[in-house]
Specification:
The complex is a heterotrimer of chains A (about 350), B (about 300) and C (about 525).
Chain A: E1 5-10, H1 16-40, H2 45-54, H3 60-85, H4 93-110, H5 116-145, H6 149-169, H7 203-220, H8 222-232, H9 234-239, H10 244-271, H11 282-292, H12 297-317, H13 325-341, H14 343-346, E2 347-352, E3 358-360
Antiparallel strand pairs in A: 1-2, 2-3
Helix pairs in contact in A: 1-2, 1-13, 2-12, 3-7, 3-10, 3-11, 3-12, 4-5, 4-6, 4-10, 4-11, 5-6, 5-10, 7-8, 7-12, 11-12, 11-13, 12-13
Chain B: H1 3-33, H2 41-59, H3 62-86, H4 91-110, H5 136-140, H6 145-163, H7 165-175, H8 177-182, H9 187-213, H10 225-235, H11 240-262, H12 269-290
Chain C: E1 4-15, E2 18-29, E3 33-37, H1 44-51, E4 59-64, E5 67-69, H2 74-79, E6 82-85, H3 97-101, H4 112-128, H5 143-156, E7 161-165, H6 173-188, E8 192-197, H7 200-206, E9 209-214, E10 217-223, H8 229-237, E11 255-265, E12 271-281, E13 285-289, H9 296-304, E14 311-316, E15 319-320, H10 326-331, E16 334-337, H11 341-345, H12 352-356, H13 374-387, H14 404-417, E17 422-426, H15 434-449, E18 453-457, H16 461-467, E19 470-475, E20 478-484, H17 490-498
Classes of the chains: A mainly alpha (about 350), B mainly alpha (about 300), C alpha/beta (about 525).
């Protein structure tokens, strides 16, 4: 019994250093492991990563495309973060995005002649209400009967996507669209203006503004404080007189509304119409982004750019014959490493020798 | 078409459609009875489906495919076990990560296999005299081997859980791991084992899709069945028989939607496809609301076990 | 007869930030009842957990029957004949008694061998006078019965040494007496019984020897004839302590709180309060005795608005507050210090400043219409912490790192500073050492002087007799006794706690306290 063993020892307080280092190391480790997978399947990881990097962050076009992807990603992640702060596991951001896109699309398709100062705000409002209501539907059973929101929000994702399909294959289909599942293109007034001579659109401001607003709300507002308490300890919150049911309903609505806004921004700023497949899974990636950012809105902006780059890089890697799914794979791995690494913020690894001497690791 | 001509094929199809969900649900049931939530079922099913497919195509042997699927599902589950049991990570988010990773990785691996046929899928093998029993015969006993195995599995798991010592220990593990620990039972090791078993069964469920149900490989072919399986465990109240009934109920809804389309019923195919998901939500709400949240949830589900917690 | 079974030599056990056992030596003899006495934090539970195989010692040796043993898990300890009954029962509630007893064992209760097994367990129970119903489901049993199941479980596994951790914490005086009789019987049959406790009267009643621990160190071993309370306290605390407070009995004030035939259901949907009536006056402490599980927690919850009142009335200053929201009740001046300090009363992940405004954050001094006022919140925290002498190293650290005593002080600081008209407090000194207990009691007495009505719910009869002006007993959801403290008799209160009625019982007594 002379072999030293590793033991996990609980820390008295979470280590602040680890909170920063772990995400960084996780990304590196994920890239490493991903590289190993790539070479095992016959690819040259360095070549692949090189293309992914240069085509996402290393070129003007690539960089703007990264931002384009980061906009809906950060918006949905912000929405997800709002819910997660109260330990409401809203997995339905994808569906809420679709519903928001649908709600926003209704306006230009029904009243194409509206002037821009009515159209855009109208689309924003409708998009947010649609997304919010979609989340609200799951909030009701959760608030009243404690029905698990993970499953309900997730199921509604599939329903939302099918609903949009129904619309674009059916009643909303563009008669001039050669039978593709797309609506008529939106009028100019319904399009978010482009900026910087690229596809980056005014949705960028939505994301930036929301990140700032949410930071202030979480840290300094009364509501933010009560959300914090409820998310931390529901029992203490009801003991203190906070109305938990009402907060669940409002928070889920807000969460869905923000994702709905992301949907609006996508169809208005990028796609220009409603169609099948408006999101490559932003709602799901948003969960990873939110968790990695520890629900901090400003961090979410940064991580969204990283993941946007991953996505753009993934598309670029297809040139090398690597399926675009490599991006999702890397995202999953980063999250694994972060989750595993989180243990180090709360526990210390300790080397114990036989005599009970301890070496810190 | 007479009622019989409609009903029997529908019920038989319900069994087929429900089998992948059943496997996955049985696996998750075991995992949750041990006290761990694994939301990575969707990812494990997809990894099982793609691995099984790749192995079966390469070796022209579906059984090798099955083995590969179990290995894939089990390995992914092992990662979950390591993160949540040893490293005490949040079980919900870890499971989600597993699903996202499994979805992506399976898509990555399976790219080259889209459109390739499987030479020897699992096909229907009538079970002798049992297959000739009117009504029950064609529904239950003219299926493929994996379906028959699933029947046996339900019985085995039921007996194991409620009539054996190890099964008793498993139920206790999810209720009060501290009690088991105080009696000297290795909580960590047992939980690892049950999580991996759950993953293996999830892999089989996915393999059923690619090797029997379809049979083929398509990216994301589970279409949320893994999640339905998770929901099913809840409203089966962690009981294998109820899981069986629930799985076939869902299979029925799935099959019904398809058949209504064929019959020319004037409902948009999209609404028909929505049925299983809406149904899941509805049943979940009804079951939980009726029991006012006092489900038979294993007492320690979702909580990491830490002996030296002070 | 008196042969040594277990020897602990030089045991050292460390946890992050604390040295729980500091080179402790201990001998346990066959057939003796050996008490381990110490305050909370003295290391007695840790030491016994090491012996029971739950913790591995950092240094030191364990010898069983002369042979050195290394326990890698409780299994090894049990196989060596050492069994422990914990304070928080390690029973699986939905299972039957038989299932719980055979849990983790090779022989099972299923099938044909099961019947023989059940017969042998019943034999065992009879031998020690421990009656249990093998087919009952554990969640239906009373606390005393559950404890018996735990004991039988250990005996069934062949324990020669039975360790009991604070066993009387959840028993009535009568049940405790019965437990001690059983322990004597086990000891005469050769079993060694180790009793972990902080109650002096228990040690006096039943122990053959007592080992006293203080702050992780062994400070004394007393033989039966050397046992006396003063000496034990001196060893436990390190200084002489009287524990008698200067207090005046309450002068009759207005009735502040009145419960009139209140009925309520518990979490299982069963009635837990049955036509319960009581009154509390301004400046008076009404102490309610009772074994945990007779409706005390639910009583506090209906008053605080956290549980539905099915019928009956709760009046605060003649105003009906039944079924008002917790928020409204807090605003009416009702403070509540729950037994669950860190899960309910305080939010573990938040820091002291955030916890101190938990109920008052909506008030204008701490927040505007939308935003909090951080400066005011910080100053409030600093003031309260210094006033109540809460030992907090940093205002921004999560409060879960605080000790039990400081948590309670923080909680009381918040509740008392809201100048409540009524305070409901449950088990205030549970788990606290003598110093913290003293501080908490003095705070309650000061509050009484400020004319607050106090409803004190406790299992500790000493505490009640020391603080209360009137004593009541809660049994099965009803008030079964209510008398001024000078007229209260310890034994009678104990009887009422078990449900037996006494000649002097006065139910639903609404007469004012005697002058």
């Amino acid at each position: 019994m002379n072999r030293p063993t590793l033991k996990l020892e609980k820390r008295l307080a979470p280590s602040p250093v680890m909170v920063f280092i772990i995400p960084l190391i996780s990304v590196l480790l994920a890239l490493l492991l991903g590289g190993i997978f790539l070479s095992l399947t016959g690819q040259n990881p360095l070549a692949v990563y090189a293309i992914m990097f240069t085509d996402s962050l290393g070129s003007k076009y690539g960089f703007t495309e990264t931002i384009v992807k980061a906009i809906p990603l950060s918006l949905t992640a912000l929405g997800v973060a709002v819910a997660f702060k109260m330990k409401l596991w809203n997995i339905g951001a994808e569906g809420q995005l679709y519903m928001g896109a649908m709600g926003a699309s209704w306006l230009p398709l029904t009243y194409p002649a509206l002037p821009v100062y009515l159209m855009i705000p109208g689309m924003v409002v409708l998009g947010m209400i649609a997304g919010g209501l979609w989340a609200f539907l799951t909030a009701i059973p959760r608030a009243i009967w404690k029905v698990n929101e993970i499953i309900t929000t997730l199921m509604l994702n599939y329903v939302a996507i099918l609903w949009v399909d129904f619309l674009v294959f059916g009643p909303w289909r563009d008669p001039l669209g050669s039978n593709f599942p797309i609506t008529a293109p939106f009028p100019e007034a319904a399009r978010l203006p482009e900026m910087f001579n690229s596809r980056i659109h005014a949705g960028l401001f939505f994301a930036l503004a929301l990140a700032v607003i949410l930071t202030i709300v979480f840290k300094y507002s009364r509501w933010g404080y009560s959300i914090n308490v409820i998310g931390s300890s529901e029992r203490a919150a009801s003991y203190a007189g906070m109305n938990i049911k009402r907060n669940i309903l409002w928070v889920m609505f807000l969460s869905g509304a923000i994702s709905g806004l992301a949907g609006m921004a996508e169809v208005s700023g990028i796609i220009g119409r409603l169609q099948h497949g408006i999101s490559p899974g932003y709602g799901y990636t948003a969960i990873i982004v939110a968790w990695l950012s520890k629900l901090n809105p400003l961090a979410i902006l940064i991580v969204s750019v990283l993941f946007g780059a991953l996505q753009v890089g993934g598309y670029a890697a297809q040139v090398e014959g690597v399926p675009a799914a490599v991006a999702t794979m890397l995202q999953g791995m980063i999250l694994f490493f972060v989750l595993g690494g989180e243990v180090l913020t709360n526990y210390r690894v300790v080397l114990v020798r036989q005599k009970g001497e301890e070496l810190r690791k | 078409m007479s009622i019989q001509e409609f009903l029997i094929p529908l019920l038989a199809a319900a069994v087929i459609a429900g089998t992948p969900i059943l496997y996955a649900a049985l696996g998750e049931l075991i995992t949750e009875r041990a006290g761990i939530i694994n939301l990575g079922v969707e990812g494990m099913m997809l990894m099982g489906a793609v691995s099984g497919f790749m192995a079966a195509v390469s070796t022209s042997n579906p059984w090798i495919g099955l083995l590969a699927a179990m290995l894939a599902g089990g390995s992914l589950a092992f990662v979950h076990a390591f993160l949540t049991i040893t490293l005490r990570a949040n079980q919900v988010v870890t499971g989600l990560a597993l699903t996202i990773f499994g979805t992506g990785f399976s898509g990555y691996l399976g790219k080259a296999y889209i459109g390739i046929p499987v030479s020897k899928p699992f096909t229907a093998t009538p079970l002798g005299p049992l297959a000739d029993i009117p009504f029950i015969g064609p529904v239950f006993f003219q299926q493929d081997v994996l379906v028959y195995i699933s029947y046996v599995l339900v019985i085995v798991i039921w007996y194991f859980l409620y009539h054996t010592r190890t099964g008793l220990n498993l139920r206790a593990l999810g209720e009060n791991p501290a009690a088991m620990d105080a009696l000297g039972i290795n909580v960590f090791r047992l939980r690892y084992i049950y999580v991996v078993i759950g993953g293996m069964l999830g892999g089989v469920g996915g393999a059923y899709l690619s090797l029997a149900y379809a049979p083929s490989w398509l990216e994301n072919m589970t279409a949320g069945r893994g999640w339905i399986a998770v929901a099913l465990v809840i409203f089966a109240l962690w009981n294998p028989w109820r899981a069986l009934m629930g799985a076939y109920l869902f299979g029925g809804i799935d099959a019904l939607g398809f058949r209504l389309q064929v019959l020319g019923v004037q409902v948009s195919p999209f609404f028909l496809k929505m049925l299983p998901y809406l149904f899941t939500v509805l049943i979940l709400v009804v079951v939980v609301a009726r029991r006012k949240g006092r489900l038979a949830t294993p007492g320690a589900l979702g909580l990491p076990y830490d002996r030296e917690e002070r | 007869m008196n042969q040594v079974i277990v020897q602990l030599q030089g045991i050292v056990k460390k946890f992050p930030g604390v040295l729980a056992n500091d080179h402790v030596d201990l001998d346990i003899y066959a057939g003796e009842i050996h008490a381990i006495l110490g305050e909370n934090g003295s290391g007695k539970s840790t030491l016994m957990s090491v012996l029971a195989g739950l913790y591995k010692p950092d240094e030191g040796k364990i010898l069983v029957n002369g042979v050195e043993k290394k326990f890698r898990s409780p299994r090894d300890a049990i196989d060596s004949g050492i069994g422990m009954v914990h304070q928080h029962f390690k029973l699986v509630e939905p299972f039957t008694v038989a299932e719980n007893i055979t849990l983790g064992e090779k022989q099972t209760i299923f099938g044909l061998s099961g019947k023989k097994l059940k017969a042998s367990i019943n034999e065992l129970g009879k031998k020690y006078g421990l009656e249990i119903n093998l087919n009952a489901k554990v969640w239906q049993l009373s606390v005393g019965e559950k404890q018996r199941v735990e004991i039988v479980r250990m005996l069934y596994r062949g324990s020669q040494v039975l360790i009991l951790d604070e066993p009387t914490a959840v028993l009535t005086p009568q049940e405790a007496a019965e437990l001690f009789r059983n322990l004597h019987r086990m000891a005469s049959a050769g079993c060694a019984v180790v009793l972990i406790t902080h109650k002096l009267n228990e040690v006096k009643a039943v122990a053959d020897r007592v080992t006293v621990l203080r702050q992780g160190k062994l400070v004394g071993v007393l033989q039966k004839d050397q046992i006396n309370p003063k000496e034990m306290v001196r060893l436990m605390v390190g200084r002489p302590v009287t524990m008698q407070y200067d207090r005046e009995l309450a002068v009759a004030g207005e009735v502040l709180l009145e419960l009139d035939k209140v009925n309520a259901f518990n979490d299982m949907g069963l009635p837990c309060l049955r036509d319960l009536s009581l009154t509390v006056r301004e400046g008076e402490i009404l102490g309610l005795a009772g074994v945990s599980g007779n409706g005390q927690r639910e009583l506090a919850e209906v008053i605080a608005g956290l549980r539905r009142v099915e019928s009956g009335k709760i009046l605060l200053n003649d105003r009906n507050i039944s079924n008002l929201s917790p928020c409204e009740i807090i605003d009416l001046g009702v403070a509540y210090v729950p037994e669950d300090r860190l899960g309910m009363g305080l939010v573990p992940e938040l820091n002291a400043m955030e916890n101190l405004i938990l109920k008052s954050y909506r008030q204008p001094e701490f927040s505007g219409r939308w935003f909090l006022k951080p400066q005011a919140i910080k100053q409030n925290a600093e003031a309260l912490i210094s006033q109540y002498q809460v030992n907090v190293t940093s205002l921004t650290q999560p409060v879960k790192v605080l000790s039990g005593g400081n948590l309670q002080k923080l909680l009381l600081a918040r509740e008392i500073s809201s100048s409540p008209k009524l305070m409901v407090v449950i088990y205030p000194a549970r788990g606290l050492d003598i110093g913290a207990t003293e501080a908490v009691h003095k705070l309650l007495l000061k509050l009484k002087i400020r004319k607050t009505a106090i409803l004190l719910i406790s299992e500790d009869l000493d505490e009640l007799f020391r603080l209360a002006d009137r004593i009541g007993v809660v049994y099965s959801g009803q008030l079964t006794g209510d008398f001024p403290v000078e007229q209260a008799d310890l034994e009678e209160v104990g009887l009422l706690m078990t449900g037996a009625h006494s000649a002097r019982e006065r139910v639903n007594d609404n007469e004012p306290a005697h002058t």
